[in-house]
Amino acid sequence: MSEISALYRRSLKTALNWYVDRVLWRPVALEIRARFEANRNVASTQELRKIILAAEKELEENSHPDPYKYPTAPGGTKWERNIPPLLFGENPESRHH
């Protein structure tokens, strides 16, 4: 995945942290897409680097203080909620990946 694609995905995910309802998020996602499309044909690597750095800075400034985590993801509300008990003689350290 290219750096620009990754930046685009992070921008969408950051916006989704602020607009959990997809109906409210969709117009913001379209605006993000339009901003990326407006810079699609920039050929100068120096100009492109400036645009990427500005977008990274904006993304950092707009990051959510409590980003959404899927409930079953690490740090989510259901992460390791119902861990099966250890089997007799099983080493607890063997469960860590």
TrEMBL record:
Known role: Accessory subunit of the mitochondrial membrane respiratory chain NADH dehydrogenase (Complex I), that is believed to be not involved in catalysis. Complex I functions in the transfer of electrons from NADH to the respiratory chain. The immediate electron acceptor for the enzyme is believed to be ubiquinone.
Subunit annotation: Mammalian complex I is composed of 45 different subunits.
Designated name of the protein: NADH dehydrogenase [ubiquinone] 1 beta subcomplex subunit 9
Cellular location(s): Mitochondrion inner membrane
Region entry Disordered, spans: 63-97
PANTHER family in the record: NADH DEHYDROGENASE [UBIQUINONE] 1 BETA SUBCOMPLEX SUBUNIT 9, NADH-UBIQUINONE OXIDOREDUCTASE B22 SUBUNIT
Top-rank lineage group of the source organism: Eukaryota
